[in-house]
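Hi everyone,

Forwarding the result from last night's run.
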Amino acid sequence: GATLPGMTVVCGDSHTSTHGAFACLAQGIGTSEVEHVLATQCL
């Protein structure tokens, strides 16, 4: 997917926070949280 300014990005990767360089709120999350996000589209 594309990262655009103003987006909220969550990902199960330790480098996710580098998306902040694109003016996004980005946070790395753990595997159980990834499962929850994929199932509900909510964190």
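The chain is about 25% helix and 20% strand.

Cheers,
N.
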